[in-house]
C-alpha cells in the first residue's frame, strides 16, 4: 500500500534568504523574436476570489502560447536554441525563424529527442519542425491518444515506453548520440545544462506578469509541479516577494515527499493521475535546491479537485486541461484546509495548459473546449 500523503505541507526547509541568481531576460528577448509571440492574458476572477475569501484572484492563462496549448514551448524553444548555438560555436544574427534555420545549416541533419508526459515533447517536436530537424519523442504507457496524435502531428516519431514518465526519461537518455540531441526538461547526474536553460526559458512568463500586474503585484503565487522546473523558475522570480505554493497530484507528490524527507525522494509508479503533466516520480536535481529552499507550501490534490477546478476556470472563460487546472485545485484545497497566509491576500494562479485531451474536457466540463 502507498504511504498516506498529507494534503498540505508547510515547507520545513524554507529559507528566509534564498540565494538564487535571478536569470537575466535573454530568454524573454528571444521569445519576442519568435513567430506569433504575444504575452498571454491575465484573467481576473472576482467571483472565485470572493468564494475563496481572498482579496483578489488572477489567472495567467497559458492555454495558448506561441501556437501551442501550454507554456512548455517557452522552455523547450530557449533550450533548443541555446543547445544549437553552443554546438555552432557562435550566435549568428537572425531576424526570423527562416534566418535562424539557414544560420544553423552548417550543423547538418540532427534529431531532437525528449521524454514527455505530453507538452514538453510536443514543444520539442514543434521546434524540430520549425528548424528542419527530425524528432523522436518518448511517452509513458497510458498517454492519451489525443496527446500522442498532437506530438506525431508535429512530424515526430513517437515511442510508447512500457512504464512511467521516469522510465521514458531513462530511455530517452540512452538515445543520446552525436546526431541525436536529448532536450530534457528534467535533469540527472551528468545532464544539467539543457534543463537549466529550460528553467531560464520560463522566465518569460514572469517578465510578462511583472508588467501586467505592476499596479497590484501578487502576494501569493500558485503553480503546478511535475519535476519542479516551473517551480524553480517561480522561486527565482518571486521567492523574496510572494508566498509560493506548489501543487502536485497525490499519487505523484515527489516534491511534497522530498520536502518532508529533507532530500529528493523517488515516488514509485504507477502514476495515474489525470493531471498527466504532473505524473513525475522524481524531482529534477537542478530544480531541487531552489524548490526546497524557496517554496512555502506543498499541496497534494486528487483528480476530483482538478476536475472541479477545470469547471471553475470554464466559468471565467479559461479553457484549462487537467494539468492546467491543478494550481487552482490546490489553492482551493489549501484555503479550505485553512493554510495560513492565503485568506485576504492577492493570489496569482498559473493555468499552464489548455484542453490537450478534448474528449476528457467534454466529459469533465460538460461542453466542448
Ligand atoms: C501543463 C503543465 N503544467 C505544469 C507542468 C509541470 O512542470 P515541471 O515539470 O517543470 O514541474 C507540466 C510538465 O509537464 C505541464 O505539462
What does this structure look like?
The chain has 369 residues and is α/β, with parallel strands linked by helices. The protein folds into 2 domains: 8-70 and 199-365, Rossmann fold, CATH 3.40.50.1100; 72-198, Rossmann fold, CATH 3.40.50.1100. Helix content is 39%, strand content 15%. The protein contains 15 helices and 11 strands. The strands form 2 sheets. Strands 1-10-9-8-11-3-2 form a 7-stranded mixed sheet, with helices on both faces. Helix 10 (229-238) links the parallel strand 8 and strand 9 (243-249). Helix 3 packs across helix 8 (193-201), helix 5 packs parallel to helix 6 (145-152) and helix 8 packs across helix 10. The radius of gyration is 19 Å and the shape is globular. The mean pLDDT is 95. The chain binds pyridoxal-5'-phosphate. Pyridoxal-5'-phosphate is lined by residues 70, 72, 117, 119-120, 185, 224-231, 277-278, 323-324, 352-353.
